[in-house]
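Would you mind writing out the residues of a protein together with its fold in token form for me to study?
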Amino acid sequence: MEFWENSTVIHSLQRSLREWYQAQGRDLPWRSTTNPYHIWVSEVMLQQTQVSTVIPYYYRWLNQFPDIPTLAESSLDLILKLWEGLGYYARARNLHRAAQQVASEYQGIFPQELEKVLTLPGIGRTTAGGILSAAFNQPVSILDGNVKRVLARLVSLEQPPQKAIKQLWVISDTLLDKKHPREYNQGLMDLGATICTPSQPACLLCPWSEFCQALQYNLQTKIPMREPSSPLPHKEIGVAVIWNDQGEILIDRRPEEGLLGGLWEFPGGKIEANETIAACIQREIEEELGIKIEVGEHLITINHAYTHFRVTLNVYHCQYLQGEPQPLESQELRWVKPEQLSEFPFPKANTKIIEVIVG
């Protein structure tokens, strides 16, 4: 039997974490409510995003979409515009789709059954556990990035967490305080966020230090183990700011599925080997929009990093010449005045282009 399967150890871990959380837990806006919709929004926003960034978005979101039916009936453009800057836009699209599902299947009332919650777009085991434990005090375990790190150190995991997900879920399930799941899960997340941090963990302040195997073997800075990472691929992109004779700019909306789905952008594409930027832009615009343009002055060059790759956007003013614009590789097209650009949800890198255009 592993040490963490001992009932005395389990009880000690649960009690010490609860006492620590009651004294040291973070005061966060979604902690003062049991409204499952509010908690759901916070859980989704906190995926891949820091608390300090999330808080103002959380308040703006609930002000605009105070309940599930309102969110379900709202336009995707409005939703993405409010999400602008948070990144990982699939989260916003999934919130919208899930709200529509809750509205149609559950009369707008968030379900309390784990099986039903797991059918909602964008909700996996950890998000479901976070919502159900916080909103309804249900004994459902979690395993987000912070929790993986805490548990990996606790048991001195001898491989990267991603290769031991099943084992970590077993540990998470075993240690869950079924009498106080709300406090336990929130305490566990806070422990990872404030004490058991990725680098320089504050082990002397940790309520679990007595049992932590990584600390016992002085491995707390080496665990969790990491898999070797490859350098990020880099793409050179030609981007067109296309003007017509009425002083309008042509923008297109990306397909809903995939990277930056549903957002608007300035059209363009990847520069091929031995291709000039101007030739790339002309080719891409003909392929994507079916029109002829003249490439003019350089506007701005932007370097931007996504999770799995980096891009350099080479942005040029272009003049529309002929042809009827068609959304051959996008959802729709619009001619808009420069001052209207701020009304549309754009990827973060594109907002820098808008700033230069508008001045």
In short: Residues 145 and 192 are 8 Å apart (CA to CA).
